[in-house]
Amino acid sequence: MALSSRQITGSNFAYQHLPFDTFLDDAADLGREKLELWGIAPHLHIPQLRNADARRIRRSIEARGLTAYCLTPEQVMYPVNVASPVDWLRTESIAHFRHAAELCAELGAELLLLTPGRGYENEATGAAWRRSVDAIGEIAAHAGTLGVECVLEPLQRVESNLVNDSRTLAAMLDEIGAVNLGAVLDTVAMAVAGESVDDAFEALGDRIRHVHLIDGRPAGHLAWGDGELPLADYLSALERRGYDRWMTFELFGDGTYARDPRTAVEQCHARVGLA
Fold first, then answer.
1. Which of 1, 170, 180, 234 is a Cys-bridge partner for 144, taking CB atoms 3.0 to 4.6 Å apart?
2. Is this prediction's pTM over 0.90?
3. Contact call for residues 42 and 75 (beta carbons, < 8 A)
4. What is the 8-class DSSP label of residue 42?
5. Residue range 106-129, pLDDT digits in tens
6. How far apart are CA 183 and CA 176, in angstroms?
7. E-strand stretches of 48-135
8. Whose CA is closest to 110, among 69, 73, 72, 151?
9. pLDDT at residue 1, rounded to an integer
10. Helix 51-62 and helix 20-29: axis angle, to 10°?
11. Taking a C-beta distance cutoff of 8 angstroms, is the pair 19, 265 a contact?
12. Using an 8 Å Cβ cutoff, are 107 and 46 in contact?
């Protein structure tokens, strides 16, 4: 696939130990146009960020010729869980994402990325599923009033006991039934589930509205070349399926990328032919 450089976002994954302005400067210098913003402290801690802060951040982004595209609040490692059986935690988690949708509107970002949360391991899955469906439906409805589209990402089994593959994701999207709610294809979660790009498109079709394009073994969220996943096959399949939206290198690894994130990003660019 002759991947267009337009389809790769800049993202602050792995930049959490550097100033936010360093990330913005690198993104502009590396020729990015759109940004996926990880809602992590100290860059964009959602509970502390006010609308005026988001407008200030937007001005800083746009001053470099960039635009925000997707806001991805931290929601797996933080105490945020829309499917929690604990009432106060679920209520606060829903409020967290409603506020994030408002921040999206202020940032000028089109997408808000959501995950399904998880229930207790010793409770019936159906109860947690219902809590997740109701919560995501409420968040998507609120986002819709603001002109914001949401995308739901499947997670690895160690991260969620609700949505771990494309078929289950399709079932949840069907049940929620929100027109402004689509899907994320994450190549690591996909590989861990034993699926391919074609499997994901068979299940989800044009509801795939964002891609996390990352290497792994099969897990790991690695820079391309540090894992074993078939990048060329993935890119060919995305081209064959007519995917023309945005993709992000979601770099976590074992934490070492955070010491020199630009080098890891440049390694990814080189692997997809953007060097």
1. 180
2. yes
3. no
4. T
5. 999 999 999 999 999 999 899 999
6. 12
7. 67-73, 111-114
8. 69
9. 40
10. 30
11. no
12. no
Mean pLDDT by 10 residues, the chain (275 residues): 72 97 98 96 95 97 98 91 97 98 98 97 95 98 98 96 97 98 98 98 98 96 96 93 95 94 96 77
* Residue appearing with tokens 């809602």: 39
CA gap 77, 106 in Å, rounded: 25
Cα 193 to Cα 39: distance, rounded to the nearest angstrom: 26
Residue 220 in tokens: 């790991």
73 pairs with which residues across the strands? 39
The owner of tokens 């074992």 is 254
Query: What span, in angstroms and rounded, lies between the C-alpha atoms of 250 and 257?
Result: 11
Q: What angle do CA 238, 241, 245 make, to 5 degrees?
A: 60
Q: Residue 222 phi/psi, 5° resolution?
A: -105, 160
* Displacement of CA 177 from its chain's centroid (Å): 20
Tokens linked to 219:
């897990």
For 4-162, list the strands marked E by DSSP.
Answer: 10-11, 34-39, 67-73, 111-114, 149-152
Chain segment 159-189, per-residue pLDDT in tens: 999 999 999 999 999 999 999 999 999 999 9
Q: At 157, is the secondary structure helix, strand, or coil? A: coil
State in Å, rounded, how far the first CA of the chain is from the last one. 15
Amino acid in the structure at residue 198 = D
Q: Which of 166, 104, 169, 88 is nearest to 136 (CA)?
A: 169
- Alpha helix stretches (DSSP H) within 111-230: 125-145, 166-176, 187-192, 197-204
Cα separation, 144 vs 155, whole angstroms? 24
Peptide bond into 42 cis (omega under 30): yes
